[in-house]
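Researcher: Sequence recovery benchmark, item below. Answer with residues only.
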């Protein structure tokens, strides 16, 4: 038991890193391992989902991605990112370690302009930059190790007592560790994404508007305490408060005449009309 505790402690100390926002975090997995997992996951998703061949949609997503990739730190900007649009009504998007971005037509249709798509894309890339995948895996591994240690420590208790103790610890670890970590990741990705979109020349004020649209679409129905994501109202408030800090980046791009121009494809409006009918 003591040896296990020592090993866990050493692992935690050795794996402490710092996120782009300056937050201390736990990373037990290497970048190469995460990149490999990202590549495998993306290949599987492309097999399971229908990849859009619509040139306008793909050009739209690529145009926005190119603008954001241009302002990424070198270790990410030199990657040849693969951007894929999936034909699905799912309101979702993702980015994976190794340079992979996926957008569903459902979320492209929900957004009103390039700026809101950039807010999503910056958010998803922010997860990659902050190594949230590694931190999530590391946290889950640490929770499992802690539960194993607790199980060993209560081996002298009756089966009923052990079951009750382990159940309580499992619930506590989710409410006190796993879910808050997940919500923190989402908030941090929002912050990083807002910074990226402003540096790339997209309007920061469109980020809170995005979450207004997400709320209208039915997001945030789960109580925030029990959710992996902050509520839309929390995100709107936080992003609104962060806009003044990033606005100078947008204004600098505007003064240089280097604002992105990625017009929203008319096919998205057609999708909306077909769905309404």
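Model:
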């Amino acid at each position: 038991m003591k040896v296990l505790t020592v090993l866990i402690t050493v692992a935690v100390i050795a794996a402490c890193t710092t996120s782009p926002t300056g937050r201390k975090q736990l990373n037990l997995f290497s970048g190469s391992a995460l990149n490999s997992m990202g590549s495998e996951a993306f290949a599987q998703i492309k097999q399971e989902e229908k990849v859009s061949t619509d040139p306008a949609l793909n050009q739209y997503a690529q145009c926005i991605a190119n603008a954001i990739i241009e302002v990424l730190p070198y270790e990410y900007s030199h990657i040849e990112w693969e951007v894929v649009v999936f034909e699905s009504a799912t309101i979702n998007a993702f980015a994976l370690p190794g340079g992979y971005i996926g957008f569903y037509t459902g979320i492209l249709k929900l957004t009103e302009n390039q700026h809101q798509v950039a807010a999503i894309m910056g958010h998803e890339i922010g997860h990659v930059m902050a190594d949230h995948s590694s931190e999530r895996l590391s946290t889950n591994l640490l929770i499992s190790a802690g539960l194993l240690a607790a199980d060993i420590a209560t081996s002298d208790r009756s089966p009923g007592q052990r079951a009750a103790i382990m159940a309580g610890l499992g619930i506590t670890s989710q409410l006190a560790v796993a879910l808050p970590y997940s919500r923190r990741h989402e908030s941090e990705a929002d912050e990083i994404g807002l910074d990226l979109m402003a540096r790339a020349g997209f309007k920061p004020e469109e980020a809170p508007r995005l979450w207004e649209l997400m709320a209208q679409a039915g997001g945030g129905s789960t109580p925030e305490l029990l959710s992996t994501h902050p509520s839309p109202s929390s995100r709107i408030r936080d992003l609104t408060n962060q806009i003044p800090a990033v606005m100078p980046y947008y204004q600098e791009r505007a003064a240089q005449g280097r604002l992105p121009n990625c017009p929203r494809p008319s096919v998205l409006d057609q999708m909306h009309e077909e769905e309404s009918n």
